[in-house]
Inverse folding.
């Protein structure tokens, strides 16, 4: 199975579900985002994803309020 097979499958799935914004790249995006949220270092993610510069990889770092709150609580000074 290659990218085009997955893309073709996603196109058929998108059409059958009536969803316009469902595509194979979403898997790649989700994987990078989950790795970064789980604590993977950005340089390793950058290498695995095949990015040539850090700015591209940083697009996958989504700052969410709950993550900020968790970090604040984890490192709160007494």
């Amino acid at each position: 199975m290659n990218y085009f097979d997955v893309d073709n499958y996603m196109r058929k799935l998108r059409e059958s579900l009536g969803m316009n914004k469902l595509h194979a790249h979403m898997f790649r995006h989700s994987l990078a985002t989950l790795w970064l949220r789980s604590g993977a270092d950005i340089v390793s993610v950058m290498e695995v994803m095949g990015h040539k510069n850090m700015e591209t990889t940083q697009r996958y770092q989504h700052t969410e309020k709950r993550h900020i709150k968790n970090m604040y609580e984890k490192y709160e000074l007494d």
User: Anything to note?
Assistant: The radius of gyration is 17 Å.
